[in-house]
Design a protein that fits this description.
By secondary structure, the chain is α/β, with parallel strands linked by helices. The protein is 26% helix and 23% strand. The chain has 3 domains: 165 residues, Glutaconate Coenzyme A-transferase, CATH 3.40.1080.10; 236 residues, Glutaconate Coenzyme A-transferase; 171 residues, Aminopeptidase (3-Layer(aba) Sandwich), CATH 3.40.630.
């Protein structure tokens, strides 16, 4: 069937339609790859159009004209987000950047703070009821259209037809220009595939099956999606859909079955990519496209349980402040929806946010984990909003942590070349103790092989990983959770205090090869707690001294035996041949753990020190 168009609707050419734009007009242009290219080119070519203010969120077609000084004599360009093609003009001060949360931009049009005389939009052809679709550009476009005095729509048969709050009736369009042309394409730029791979590896550890995802603007967050292919039943509630999602859609990784808001639907506001993704969303009822004041509304976002926001940043300071829209005084991108989704995910039951960024910039010469934000940098996200920060060197957990812990967490995921400087500055500012042991200056990616999980008989799963300097407070809490008898059996005397100085002594010997400590971590509601610790330290004749302690409520569950097994693997990798241990005479449980794995262990009894046990790896029960 052909579309039914009201008889009083005039279909005219672009020149006649754009005659409605007068000197001094305020003109809104549709967003990104959904922008009406034909109308934009025609507008620029109309030499009689002068002193016009252009508003746009993401601008691409106009980048073809910004090198012409005559353009800026005729047009003032105001953008809510600086796209890559527009960055040079922004650096030169030719573009006015409007900082605003994406969720609040539609309200600027609705309440008249930004008046719109003419809206230039692109829509799909109308259906038999006269409804066109805004397709891949609903975002702030619909609000501008609804509040403009005059709406000029380019009907492009290649514009995908999307469902949700994306429809506009032809009666709302003052002028229609039929013009078919290919949609703009968008391909993210990946500068360092290895850095992306490592960041993706760490992010995948945080994303659990059944979570609902938001992926922020920028190449990195979307590239991370390639590392979530082993997840199950993910949902999607995000502003932007790109080609990066297609493998997860087709493999049923993203199926929206576990969402708690708009179940079964992938919620978005925009789509940018290739013809492949445009065809995928076209007439696909799985997608629900809506306006930015809905999609990015924190209260709506929070309706999704287990909501995880993944976005990027330009730099993060040692206290957790995030800059994402400027490099110093130079505006680089925009506030966008980062804060909206960080707060929405924080309000979500079981939700949290992730800031992902490479550890360095400018070919490794500049750290992006910094002592303080650059002079002039905007604080897009406050230090109170961030849960996790991820670089190619690991995961920093900030939520609920004090400045001391934040410094240690962030310093250990900074590039090794900059960690000493970060620690020194933190000491000068009294963020941390003057005697603080710094993070290792090595690349600790190899520690990933030392991570494991262990399922208890009751079905609970514990995580095991190497101890890090940032774990001092968690280790302290573990120590004080132990009963006096347990402490005595571990340290051979009634140690009553676990001071910062003692922690520094223990940490100073850890090099993760000759000396290492593994911790067992239990996820308890919204936080993790250490419930077991196993350590070995360098001994003599290719031997290592080993010791364990398990919290009382987790004893007799096989945890010490599992730790012993994992510690042996690490010790063998680092050149050790045997373990030695001293055990109190009445500690029969630990003696049993050792002799069960090493039935040929050499066990001797001393009147003063209890049992001395020496265990050859190649005589273990696993051989």
């Amino acid at each position: 069937m052909t579309a039914t168009i009201p008889s009083d609707l005039k279909t005219i050419d672009a020149q006649k339609a754009l005659a409605k734009i007068k000197k001094g007009s305020r003109v809104f242009i549709g967003t990104g790859v959904g922008e009406p290219q034909h109308l934009i080119r025609t507008l620029i070519e109309k030499t009689d159009v002068e002193d016009v203010v252009l508003y746009q969120m993401l601008s691409y077609t106009l980048s073809q004209y910004i090198k012409d000084d005559q353009f800026f004599k005729r047009f003032a360009l105001k953008l809510f987000f600086i796209s890559v093609p527009m960055q040079a003009a922004a650096f030169e001060g030719k573009i006015e950047y409007i900082p605003a949360y994406l969720s609040q931009i539609p309200g600027l049009f609705t309440n008249g703070l930004i008046g719109i005389d003419v809206a230039l939009v692109q829509v799909s052809p109308p259906d038999r009821f006269g409804y066109c679709s805004l397709g891949i550009s609903v975002d702030v476009t619909k609000a501008a259209l609804e509040n403009a005095r005059v709406v000029i729509a380019q009907i492009n048969p290649l514009m995908p037809r999307t469902f949700g709050d994306a429809f506009v009736h032809v009666e709302k369009l003052d002028h229609v220009v039929w013009h078919e042309e290919p949609l703009l394409g968008f391909a993210p730029r990946i500068k360092n595939a290895e850095v992306v791979r490592r960041i993706g590896h760490y992010v995948s550890q945080l994303v659990q099956d059944g979570a609902t995802l938001q992926i922020g603007f920028g190449s990195l967050p979307h590239a991370i999606l390639a590392y979530l292919g082993n997840k199950k039943d993910l949902g999607l509630h995000t502003q932007l859909i790109t080609d990066s999602f297609i493998p997860l859609f087709k493999s049923n990784v993203i199926n929206n079955s576990k969402k708690t808001h708009l179940i079964g639907r992938s919620v978005a506001s925009m789509c940018m990519g290739s013809e492949k993704i445009y065809q995928y969303v076209n007439n696909n009822p799985m997608f629900y496209f809506s306006t930015s004041d809905y999609v990015s509304n924190p209260t709506v976002i929070a309706c999704n349980e287990r909501m995880i926001s993944i976005s990027s940043a330009l730099e993060v300071d040692l206290t957790g402040q995030v800059c994402s829209d400027s490099l110093g005084f130079i505006f680089y991108s925009g506030i966008g929806d980062q804060v909206d989704f960080l707060r929405g995910s924080s309000m979500s039951k079981g939700g949290f946010s992730i800031i992902a960024l490479p550890s360095t910039a400018k070919k490794g010469t500049i750290s992006r984990i910094v002592p303080h934000l650059s002079l002039g940098a905007g604080v897009a996200t406050t230090r109170g909003d961030v849960h996790y920060v991820v670089t190619e060197y690991g995961i920093a957990t900030l939520h609920g942590k004090g400045v001391y812990q934040r410094v240690m967490e962030l310093a250990q995921i900074a590039h090794p070349d900059f960690r000493a400087e970060l620690i020194n500055v933190a000491k000068q500012r009294h963020y941390i103790f003057q005697d603080q042991i710094p993070p290792s200056f090595d690349d600790l990616l190899f520690l990933e092989a030392y991570k494991s999980t262990y399922e208890l008989r009751n079905g609970k799963v514990l995580s095991f990983r190497p101890l890090l300097p940032s774990d001092e407070f968690a280790y302290r809490n573990f120590f004080y959770s132990l009963e006096k008898e347990t402490v005595y059996r571990r340290y051979f005397y009634q140690m009553e205090l676990f001071t910062h100085e003692l922690a520094q002594q223990e940490w100073s010997a850890i090099d993760y090869r000759k000396n290492i400590t593994l911790i067992g971590v239990n996820q308890n509601v919204n936080h993790q707690e250490i419930i077991a610790v196993g350590s070995y330290s360098e001994g003599t004749n290719l031997g290592a001294e080993i010791a364990f302690v398990v919290r009382e409520d987790f004893q007799n569950m096989g945890i010490a035996s599992y730790l012993l097994q994992e510690m042996e693997k690490i010790a063998i990798e680092n050149g050790y041949k045997w373990f030695g241990a001293s055990v109190l005479e009445n500690n029969s449980a630990m003696i049993h753990v050792f002799t069960k794995r090493y039935p040929n262990a050499n066990v001797t009894l001393s009147e003063e020190d209890g049992y001395r046990i020496e265990m050859n790896f190649y005589g273990s029960s696993e051989e």
